[in-house]
């Protein structure tokens, strides 16, 4: 039976992560909490807006209202990566070869490991950034679509156009697809064709009763789990055309209780599902079997993360009630 080690924090939890098996909880006020032989805190920002886990270095990148981009180590040490005074760092992303992307307003910056910084301007405000899994390439979500930039080249961006406001962006783990969440209750995707001159094919994923605020790829990238409905909506991406013409799985349906966060297991085809009432379950793709991980709490689940071996799940909520579930009990 899973057991929960609770951690009661103040305020909205923006993100959670495990660094070297130590759970970290990032609060909107700017404090980063960790459970490392007791509850310890690093004051990283004066107001925290964005967070990204850097898998290669097992560190955490954060962006704040104070114009700072910080990197946190597993021992809680924080160092300054970049600073833009009086600008809100609304997006951060971790890339290959030590690259870090961050954005404010209409501009994305990519800071390379040697300290060089590249600048990419958009016509509209940047709403999301993602690095491609291979090659130093970024996708930037904005109004009316996504811009794809090669970081080393100053050439023209590849524009993936679709009318409407795109609020986040992700690459599939194999790099074949780009998917955005939208201001309307939908996802939009593009199949990136490798043939020269070929157009990216559109994928429209609709039918959500609420905005999609959480996306998570399965371990092998064959599925994309999403929030925004009274179940986790899990789209199939194993075919050459992704989810086009296919129905998604609906896992963990609970009446009218909305799913607010999803996190796919690092090895198995299992997804952790967090709800607006604070409840967390795990559901298996193959047979929809469910296991209760945490009973309802004070606030909606806002963030979840598995540790590397998939035996522990950290979660945080809009009300600050957080914790770590030990799956083995």
Written account of the structure:
This is High-affnity carbon uptake protein Hat/HatR. Residues 266-327 form the Anaphase-promoting complex subunit 4-like WD40 domain. It is a single chain. This protein folds into two domains: 1-41 and 208-329, Methylamine Dehydrogenase, Chain H (7 Propeller), CATH 2.130.10.10; 90-206, Methylamine Dehydrogenase, Chain H (7 Propeller). The protein is built from no helices and 30 strands. Helix content is 0%, strand content 53%. The model has no long low-confidence stretch (mean pLDDT 95).
CATH third-tier fold name of the largest domain: Methylamine Dehydrogenase, Chain H
| Category from helices, strands and their pairing | mainly beta
Q: Give average pLDDT, whole number.
A: 95
Percent in helix? under 10%
Task: Summarize the helices and strands and which ones pair or pack.
Elements lengths: L2 E6 L4 E7 L2 E6 L3 E5 L3 E5 L4 E7 L4 E6 L3 E5 L5 E6 L7 E4 L5 E5 L2 E5 L5 E5 L6 E4 L5 E14 L7 E14 L5 E6 L4 E5 L9 E5 L9 E3 L5 E4 L5 E5 L12 E3 L7 E6 L5 E6 L4 E5 L5 E5 L6 E6 L5 E6 L3 E6 L3
Antiparallel strand pairs: 1-30, 2-3, 3-4, 4-5, 6-7, 7-8, 8-9, 10-11, 11-12, 12-13, 14-15, 15-16, 16-17, 17-18, 18-19, 20-21, 21-22, 22-23, 24-25, 25-26, 26-27, 28-29, 29-30
Summarize the structure.
The protein has 329 residues and is mostly beta strands. The chain has strands at residues 3-8, 13-19, 22-27, 31-35, 39-43, 48-54, 59-64, 68-72, 78-83, 91-94, 100-104, 107-111, 117-121, 128-131, 137-150, 158-171, 177-182, 187-191, 201-205, 215-217, 223-226, 232-236, 249-251, 259-264, 270-275, 280-284, 290-294, 301-306, 312-317, 321-326.
